[in-house]
Amino acid sequence: TLPSLLLLPPSLLILSSSPQSRRASLKPHSGHRTASPPSSHPPTAAAMKPSSPTPAVGTALHLVKTPNFVKFAAVALLSLSVALLFYHHPSFPSAAFSAFTFASNSSPTAVPANSTSIAANTTSIASNSSSPSSAIPKVKKLPPPPPSVAQRTGIVDENGAMTEDFDVGEFDPSLMEELRDLGGGAEETEKRNEPKIVKYDKFKPCDQSKIDYIPCLDSFERHCPDSTLDCIIPMPNGYQKSIPWPRSRDELWLHNVPDTRLVQDQGSQYSMSVKDDKISFQDGGSDQYLNLVSQMVPEIDFGHQTRITLDIGSGIGSFAASLFKYNVVTLSIGTKDVHKNQIQFALERGLPAMVAGFGARRLPYASQAFDLIRCSGSGIDWTVDNGVLLLEVNRLLRAGRYFVWGGPQVDSNHELSLEDQWKEMGDLAARICWQLVKKEGNVGIWRKPLNNSCYLGREIGAQPPLCSSSEDPDNVWYVNMTACITPLPKDGNGGNVSVWPARLHSPPDRLQSIKMDAMISRKELMKAESRYWNEIIGSYVRAFHWKEQNFRNVLDMRAGFGGCEPFDTYPRSYDLIHAAGLFSDERKRCNFSTILLEMDRMLRPGGTVYIRDTLAVIGEIHDVASAMGWVVMVHDTSEGPHASWKFLACEKRMP
Question: What domain of life (predicted)?
Answer without folding.
Answer: Eukaryota
